[in-house]
Amino acid sequence: MYSFLVLFILAVIPSMCKGLHENKCKVVSQDQYIEVGSGTQIVCQTSCIHGKVFWTLDNSYINESTSNSSHSALSLRNFTKRSATLQCHSADTQEVLGGTIIRTYTKPSKISCLLHYDQATQGLPDLFTCSWEHQTDASLEVNYTVLCDSCTRQSEICNSQKTTCTHNYYDMSDKIPLMQNSTVTVRAKSAAWEASSDPYKFSPFSILKITRPHINVLAVSGRLLVEWSGAKFSQGKQHCQVKYSKAVDEGSPEWVLNKTLGRKVDKGEMVIEKVESCHNYTFAVRCALGEAPWSDWSHERTVLAKLNKRDVKLRLWRKVAEADKNGVRKVRVMWTVIPSTCQDPFTFMITQTPLKEHMAGVNHTDTSCANSVCDVDVNQDARRINLKIFHDDFLCVEDSVYVPAVGESLPQVTDIQTSTSEGVILVSWRAPAQPVSGYVVDYTHNGNEYYWKQTEYTNATLFDLLDKKPYNITVTPLFDDKTGHGAQTLHICSRFGDPGNVNITEIKTTDKSVLVRWDVESQEACSGDVVNHTVFYRLQEGPQLNVTVDGSTRDILLKDLNRDTQYTVFVKATALTGTTKSIERSFKTKRFDPRLSTVLAVSGGILIVLVLSLGLCCAVQWRKFKEKPVPDPGHSSVALWSSASHEKGICPFPSFHNPTETSCDSIYTKEAQGTSASPPAAGSNDNPASDQNMTDEYTDPATVSAPHIQREDPAEPVDKQHPSFPAETTELLSSDDSPSSPYRSQSPVEAPAPRTRKQCTRAPVKQQEKTPPLTVYVTLDMFEQGQGR
């Protein structure tokens, strides 16, 4: 039983394993690395499935396979990809049955070898170096070997893990002799593949890099002499290159000149003609043998070029000032500056040559100057000013310029026009009627430093100007041997800047408006002209409003503001070249209109003045009333009534001295004075009725005695006699020395003759029942006027 079970297991299990092994699918590749451009074959075993299969290369379908019942083979030809993934798929289920990755490698290429020197400068070279190019997988470690193929048997020269390899030439001179052509190859080897380069054939002299030359540069007048020395070889000719540049900055252009030397020549030289005077130049030289590589550039050498007489252009010019009271004119002589880098000594000499040579005692004045500007004094005559430059005591160059006489009739240009554009000034003018040989345009921004240029046209462009500076420009015509008079234009700005600073100078507020005043202070001479001003104002928490006015306005009244409200304001000035603005100012409108306070204040002041004036007048009048007592009527004179009044029985007025002596009192009123401006003379009987009426008019009913009083006889009846003399007059009291008095005035006369006393006969007074009694008023000033008497 147990033996049978063992035999069954031993028979079944191998058959099962065989079946499982036969049904497995996989991809088999002969090589994982192939050389670029070569091919390979990949097989996919398909015993595990029934049906067709297909291949993909990096997920792209390819149809270059051959299939049978057990496997499918794919052939790759001219494969150039660095890496690719191949997969085998079931056509029925799209299932991936297997796959592999194919990588490529390249062989070394572009081999170049070099024989060169390290320490030695003559004889055999020190080193042999080869370099090449090779693209490999960075994860692989590749070893390189340089092999000599021209030797009796292939031998190794050097090994490296980089794409360059250097070996001492002395140890291999027998393998690669200088006089024999040689061949080398480079072998690259990794753990997975091995590749060799194509053979590289060369002649040792064609790969010989000679040592760098030694250079020397000599500066002579107007040119530079370059000399160098290097290795000496009998094999082939040397050719060299001289590189030089003006040592100004790193961007200076370089010039390269070629020079070929003969065989067995180890020295060379070259003359550089095109150099600027007094400028530094940098030189370097390199050489090569035939087709061999260039040597390294020599060490650079910098030298200062000397002054070249052909480059010296003095451009001599002069500025003539007005003559002083002694007739002396100051002439500023100007010429081109010789660079300060010129280290050779120069001497500048200015001489004057008057044009009136026949004049006796003409003095040729010599002036020595140290720079490119020199001032000399001349008289009112015409002359030429000569400039001579001496170098090492030899005359280097000279030139002259004409100075016209005072009042000399010479033409000048007219209609000078100027314009400015982006820092450049354009000048144009109209030529004079006489033919000219050219023009000189001189310009200055400070009156001390001048610039000038010469042109043959009637226009010029001035460059390299100082920014935002005003220039004075003068145009002078030139003739064959003379110069005309200059025409000048003043204060032409090279560029206009922003407008000046804006400052708010005054803010006056009311309840609903504000007056804002400002000014613009120009900090520069070439500030832009203000085109307009814009006033911006706003509430603390509100939108910004603005009002624009023209450039000449310096104040504005902002209306329709809120009462008792805080505002901010600033002013912006706008020109064609930019804008400037003031600092922001704050203000607050008033609660009430300030004009109402003014009106109230003025009205109150006027009312106070009126009250004070009235009070003062009342006080003065009261004081006068208090100081003056009531006058005594007894001290006044009462006019005597005419005798006619006595004859008619009318009671004469008794004396006011003792009013109790008579019961007939009469008082004159102002109306009575007015109606009796010319009373009749005493004793006149022309108009008795008039007297009677007058008596009745001035009789006060209040003063008439009652009937019982009339019946009583007076104790002492007094009958005053009134003389009837023509000289006697009666009139109202008046005097030039005192104010008018309400009392009658009587002129002094002689005493009349005694007359018979008669009792006073009172005129009967008729009283009407319904007639109200008359009231007579007595004023206090009547008594005051009586004081005068």
Helix content: 10-25%
> DSSP strand (E) fraction?
35-45%
- Radius of gyration over C-alpha positions, nearest whole angstrom: 70 Å
Could you tell me the mean pLDDT?
Answer: 77
Total DSSP E strands: 48
Helical stretch count?
7
Contiguous runs where pLDDT drops below 50 for at least 5 residues: 1-22, 358-363, 639-771, 785-789
Give the SSE map:
Layout: H1 2-22, E1 26-29, E2 33-35, E3 40-45, E4 53-57, E5 60-62, E6 65-67, E7 71-76, E8 83-90, E9 96-105, E10 109-116, E11 127-133, E12 143-148, E13 155-160, E14 164-168, E15 182-189, E16 194-196, E17 200-202, E18 214-220, E19 223-229, E20 238-246, E21 254-260, E22 267-272, E23 280-289, E24 301-304, E25 317-320, E26 329-334, E27 346-354, E28 366-369, E29 373-378, E30 383-391, E31 394-403, E32 414-421, E33 424-430, E34 438-444, E35 450-455, E36 459-462, E37 470-478, E38 487-493, E39 501-509, E40 514-521, E41 530-539, E42 544-550, E43 555-558, E44 566-575, E45 578-581, E46 585-588, H2 594-627, H3 643-647, H4 670-675, H5 688-697, H6 707-711, E47 730-732, E48 744-746, H7 780-786
